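note to self: dont lose this again. the chain is below, predicted strucutre after it. 540 aa total, dont forget to put it in the shared folder this time
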Amino acid sequence: MNRLLFGLMFAMIQPAVSAVADQPAAQVAKRIDKLLTSELAVSPGEPAPRTSDATYLRRVYLDLTGDIPTPEEITAFVLDPALDKRDRIVRTLLDKPQYGQNWARYWRDVILYRRIEERAVLVSNPLVTKLTKDLNDNKPWSEIASEFITAEGDVQNNGATAVIMAQEGRTEETTAEMARIFLGIQIQCAQCHDHPWDSWKREQFHELAAFFPRLGVRPVLTPTRRSFMVYSSDQPERRRMMMAAADKPRAEAEHYMPDLEKPDERGTRTQPKFFLTGATLPFGTSDAERRGQLAEWFTENEWFATAVVNRLWAELVGAGFYNPIDDIGPDRESIAPETIKMLSNQFARNGYDLKWLLRTICATEAYQRQARPRSETGKPNFAANVAQPLRGDQLFNALLTALDFDEPVRGAIGGRGEFKAYGGQATPRVLFNATFGFDPSNDREGVSASIPQSLALMNTAQINQAISSSQSLPKRLLERFGDDDDAIIEELYLRCLSREPTTEERTAALDYLAYVPVRKEAVEDLTWALVNCSEFSHRR
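---
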């Protein structure tokens, strides 16, 4: 009864928000659903039905803030009779500081999982700090991307240096990652030969690389601090302590395309040229002008908007319009070309507003449908949402919220204290990510549970303490609900899975609590089982 009263009161005091502000997003969402139905020939009776309010709430919490709702928030949302409550909760979550932090950690993983320099973990915390502020301030994605393309400075002071630092400032590797992350195009396959599947020529890759030859990364050493500096130099014969493929120092102010038949020779001097439009800069252009102009050409190009729209759609709906999500381009086939073209154009017209984009996707029926397994053909048609495994940070947050304990600042949760862990510091979150994290650019079909992950959940001291100590969640539930086993079971399901138990689950849990002689141990076992089930580690 107390929970019902709380829920009703919470629903009544929610702030009234004008629907006018959301009209553009809502209108675009309706057009998306209509276009998808037309393009994919989905009959009205074929799509999965809308998911329940409780499942939707857990889904949108995880997608936008990287955490799960509390039992009180679930009850309030489910009991709220307002027809626009889903739109309102999206706006509310996008205004939370956890929104920026969640997506900052997502982009950290996109950038750093494919690093070639292990010491690039030094830029992890500055990167998350920068992006958290940028995203919460709703800085346009075009401005954020431009800062990464043009970045320089101490990597521990400027998180925007992350892409360059992750690739050690190497010309070819930096070129490939800039194109992959911000345009969704993997032109690196044309580095040594014409692209085997796309129309990109080898010259086009090296013309793009000609925007980055004046970059370098060097160590910064002081008696009290070690770091790295991303720097540029316009000296005609500057020397960077960077090794080429042939392990020889490079000394170029311009980029030279290697001669594959004569690898010991310098190669052909290559003019900066943007492969998507043919726009060029003259030899001798300064580094600042090269990268500044390239940032403009990147962010003005249609594939810039398409790349982030495709990526975020895939993250929220479960599959992209293009798959893999970071291998798109004019030679690739989209599942629904008219739909993504329309959404990408609208995103650009709305000033590359990421909150607008997320609000629009969350308003679509495609996002709000029940989750279904991926199509057997491997070509999902968006007739249902698709369950997604939680990223390491999301799973870590879910454990903290479900078990109601504060984030530990020391000790180990899974993994080992290697440089694989972001930041090079063996904090529990860092080590948890070393065990449970994955590259978010990869197909989620390839993300599966492992023995180290199971062992980490079973044997971690902090998790065991949160479940079995004198101040644990089970102990507090027993004190709160006394002999009311049904209330304890409902509370645990709401805390861990954001829903009430089914009739079968409730019966099985009651039978188990009655079977185990020590009631506290039975509640602990039930808690442990819920946080270790696949439903907990996925968002549906």
